[in-house]
Amino acid sequence: xxSIKSFQLLAACILTCSSLSAIAQNQADVWLTRADRSVLFxxxxxxxxxxxxxxxxxxxxxxxxxxxxxxxxxxYALTGGSAQHIVKMSAPARTALLKELFATDGxxxxxxxxxxxIGASDLNEKVFSYNDLPExxxxxxxxxxxxxxDKMDVxxxxxxxxxxxxxxxxxxxxxxxxLWMKTTYDARGGMLKPEYYDVYAKYLVRYVQExxxxxxxxxxxxxxxxxLHPGNNPSLxxxxxxxxxxxxxxxxxAFAKANIKxxxxxxxxxxxxxxxxxxxxxxxxxxxxxDGSAFHxxxxxxxxxxxxxxxxxxxxxxxxxxxxxxxxxxxxINIVNPVRRLIxxxxxNWSKNVLEWNLAADPENKPYTDRGGCSMCQGAVTIxxxxxxxxxxxYAIAHAxxxxxxxxxxxxxxxxxxxxxxxxxxxxxxxxLIVANSGxxxxxxxxxxxxxxxxxxxxxxxxxxxxx
Length: 468
Description:
468 residues, alpha/beta
């Protein structure tokens, strides 16, 4: 039988543990990035304590009772060029980089969503598809389909990433069909020939199936990257009526027949044309196969995502691409801009994810295709042999990806003019608030939840993530 002293020790432990828990719940951790680079996504030694203090500061009111969309994740495009650099690193250096990017412990940033190109993108060394044939030849049954060049870099890198985070979500996006399926035998521009709509649907089915065989589950595909930008290399022009027809008559039925659960996402282009996805979703026959719409922000306003949501609230919204660039070795870091426009802007307008373009490049932003590839597309990390440095896109995503884990719900906050913000509640019940100071001065403000208040200070141009 336990002694009285044992019970006393147990009781003391319970009281101590309860006290520590109460203290922990009354504290908020702060992760900060300052515009002058004196702090770059670092946990602050001193957190913030809740109190009932009264002051005249502006207040961010957090309301966990009002919820919005669930979150799938935050991350980057793993282009062929990104994978090419990563796979060439020594095993120890590659492991260190991928752990920092995809693990969640310590200072690792917990990237939870990746976008892959289906075939080449403009950030590959050269253009290819998975069924390249000489002009005049065809392969209607996709007998010659082969993941080809991806087997050398994208697939092995993805396997290492999935070993770190098996729950990672993956979106695939094509830049161009095989050239023999197009109206012009050219990687740039052209349209998909109507007689090959069924063949191209088979091609996309094979992509999902073959990646699954490699142990790489594709959660979603978009129909076409930037369907209204045929000047990229590679690219394809696909107007909204054609995309609707392709989905409802060919891709949707092909996925259903093959029992493929991968989500079908339309549009995948700028926020200046919300009419494109809305007109497709207005077609009931197409809509039944569609999970949602994806957006970029090289044109238009981020609020257009809400326009599409309001038109079809039963369909999801995704943010699939935005290039984020800074000058190498610059004295400051414009962290506010991508966090305000993308992390905060997209999620406040119903997006389930935020993906930046792209994961990695070398010091010259290579590789990229000729005749239209992006020569200024900087990676989230710059890789130089076994060494790597972190860029603006790395820090912008980190402020969300580490803490706003998949399954989190966006919860309501008021949006203050110089303190744009967004809040989430995680599956574990934690609250995460991301705030950017876009004003011209240091700001003192309150964070209020359930009658308790945190008093925070944020320098101009700085971003902070608060977790409690």
